[in-house]
């Protein structure tokens, strides 16, 4: 119940639909129990009492009740659905909002397919229970209470005898729930893995095909599929074992009714019509009780789904804004790192240790060093994608943590090695960070990013639709769209993370031209492996294993016999020798 209590805020505002639907259910249930009573009257008073003139009245009452039941059924169904649909609408929105707020630390450990299945399958599972399961639980309880009351009214001893098996049935249903709940959790988990496999396969199809790993992927998928199948079979097994047991207990009750009820009719202490009515009433109780397995099953599924949804809703947001953050529309872009250290995973080595530097507004800082040295990590701390374990990152003399996150990030533009383009028009992709930009501004930005020409060569120009991940464009073209996007944001701080590594010399030249344009008057961080990309920087930081091992301008650094000089030698002076030796 804890899960449902925690999710209360989503369904509580719509309880009126639920109450109205339950009221309709009450109506339907009462009419259902009236049927056997009419049957009893028909047998005992009309047929055995030979009052045949009453038949037409009974028929009219019967038809009237059926019409009323039909109307009430419509409302209980419709209002029940409305309750579920409206509740999960808010829940889905809250989940999506939370996903936007969660930090990178969360996404580092999350799997897309699993998240997708939580936001779709689990939300649906929860909705189904709110719409139907919850109400069904109440319907069953009502049906049992009302039927039992009528049974006790007809004959207390017969009611007691037929209900003697009820405790056994309840014990079996409870055991069933205990087994079936973890089974459903496993099914959901397995489905999450299956979805992850499919999603990763589709996203990484380029890599799969280029490395001819199709058969390997089929095997891996098969493994997940087998697991999903086995989990389902395991659950079916639980069902198959418990359901006949429940039915057997139900049938024992029917036998008791037949034997003892028959005896009471023969010795005259029970009317024949009452025995017939008893049969219907007992089936009204035993049917739902057995069906309780199914409802419990739904309840278990909804509980399992609810738990998985709560895991998202309650996930810790580790990047937290101060209560009264600085709301700055303009910043200078002065960045200072003071003795900053960062460790991503507790048992791993530090990604950055004791980093200190100063980047005055408009200056260009180059970051170079072997892969994994910590270059990207430095820029991730400026945007507060991660929080340092030690030290402080300042922007314009104030810690990044004192700024309003959205405002802070709006001042920082990124051009990455592979920038993400959405499956929408080129125009919308360029304007993604600044949706209010006019068409002229978009074209201006594209021109400055050296992208206007190739965009105009496309059949629909700026209205050309891009495929998922910007398919249909070359690496250099994608990159220039990303640069146009950064220009349009007009950030004070710019991060160019390996922005030219994935393109040929000619394209690199064009991108460099575009970048020069966008770097003007902005504090810029250039992360690069090639010295040519950052040799004009005002200061170059050479990193190794999370530490700054050298710093200075290009000229200063090549005159030292250090790491930078060695990179320089490999890339320039000794290039031919190295090439020959390969
Ligand atoms: N999200 C993360 N979770 C855990 N470890 C990480 C994460 N991001 C980076 N690291 C680790 O931190 C270290 C520094 O990584 P970083 O990406 O900053 O290096 P880099 O110098 O930019 O490398 P490259 O040149 O390959 O891009 C590496 O050891 C890396 O494995």
TrEMBL record:
The chain crosses the membrane at residues 20-43, 55-75, 160-176, 242-263, 275-296. It is found in: Cell membrane. It comes from the Bacteria. It is a multi-pass membrane protein. Keywords: ATP-binding, Membrane, Nucleotide-binding, Transmembrane, Transmembrane helix. GO terms for molecular function: ATP binding. This is ABC transporter ATP-binding protein. It comes from Gracilibacillus marinus.
């Amino acid at each position: 119940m804890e899960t449902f209590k925690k999710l209360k805020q989503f369904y509580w505002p719509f309880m009126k639909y639920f109450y109205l639907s339950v009221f309709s259910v009450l109506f339907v249930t009462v009419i259902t129990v009236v049927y056997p009573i009419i049957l009893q009257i028909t047998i005992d008073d009309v047929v055995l009492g030979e009052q045949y003139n009453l038949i037409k009245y009974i028929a009219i009452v019967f038809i009237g009740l059926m019409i009323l039941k039909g109307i009430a059924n419509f409302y209980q169904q419709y209002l029940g659905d409305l309750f579920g649909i409206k509740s999960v609408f808010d829940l889905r929105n809250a989940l999506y909002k939370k996903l936007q707020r969660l930090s990178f630390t969360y996404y580092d450990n999350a799997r897309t397919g699993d998240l997708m299945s939580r936001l779709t399958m689990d939300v649906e599972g929860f909705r189904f229970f709110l719409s139907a399961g919850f109400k069904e639980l109440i319907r069953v309880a009502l049906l049992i209470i009302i039927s039992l009351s009528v049974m006790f009214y007809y004959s207390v001893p017969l009611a007691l005898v037929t209900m003697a098996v009820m405790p056994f049935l309840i014990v079996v249903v409870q055991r069933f729930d205990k087994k079936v709940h973890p089974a459903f959790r496993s099914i959901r988990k397995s489905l999450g893995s299956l979805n992850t496999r499919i999603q990763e396969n589709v996203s990484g199809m380029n890599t799969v095909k280029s490395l001819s790993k199709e058969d390997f992927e089929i095997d891996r998928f098969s493994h997940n599929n087998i697991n999903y199948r086995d989990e389902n079979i395991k659950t079916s097994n639980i069902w198959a074992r418990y359901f006949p047991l429940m039915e057997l207990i139900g049938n024992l009750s029917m036998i008791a009714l037949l034997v003892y009820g028959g005896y009471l009719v023969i010795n005259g202490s029970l009317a024949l019509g009452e025995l017939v009515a008893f049969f219907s009433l007992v089936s009204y109780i035993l049917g739902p009780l057995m069906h309780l397995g199914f409802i419990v099953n739904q309840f278990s599924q909804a509980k399992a789904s609810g738990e998985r949804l709560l895991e998202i809703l309650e996930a810790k947001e580790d990047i937290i804004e101060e209560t009264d953050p600085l709301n700055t529309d303009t910043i200078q872009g002065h960045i200072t790192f003071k003795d900053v250290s960062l460790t991503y995973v507790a048992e791993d080595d530090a990604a950055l240790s004791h980093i200190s530097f100063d980047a005055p507004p408009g200056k260009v800082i180059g970051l170079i060093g072997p892969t994994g040295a910590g270059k990207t990590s430095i820029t991730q701390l400026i945007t507060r994608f991660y929080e340092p374990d030690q030290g402080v990152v300042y922007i314009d003399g104030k810690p990044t943590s004192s700024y309003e996150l959205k405002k802070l990030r709006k001042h920082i533009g990124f051009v990455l090695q592979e920038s993400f383009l959405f499956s929408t028009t080129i125009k919308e992709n360029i304007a993604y960070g600044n949706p209010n930009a006019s068409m002229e501004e978009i074209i201006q930005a594209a021109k400055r990013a050296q992208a206007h020409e190739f965009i105009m060569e496309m059949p629909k120009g700026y209205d050309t639709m891009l495929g998922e991940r910007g398919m249909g464009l070359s690496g250099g073209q994608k990159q220039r769209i990303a640069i146009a996007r950064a220009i349009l944001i007009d950030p004070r701080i710019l991060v160019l993370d390996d922005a030219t590594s994935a393109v040929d010399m000619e394209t690199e030249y064009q991108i460099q031209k575009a970048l020069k344009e966008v770097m003007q008057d902005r504090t810029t961080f250039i992360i690069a492996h090639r010295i040519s990309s950052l040799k004009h920087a005002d200061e170059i930081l050479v990193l190794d294993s999370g530490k700054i091992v050298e710093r200075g301008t290009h000229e200063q650094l090549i005159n030292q016999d250090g790491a930078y000089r060695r990179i320089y030698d490999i890339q320039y002076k000794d290039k031919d020798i190295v090439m020959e030796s390969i």
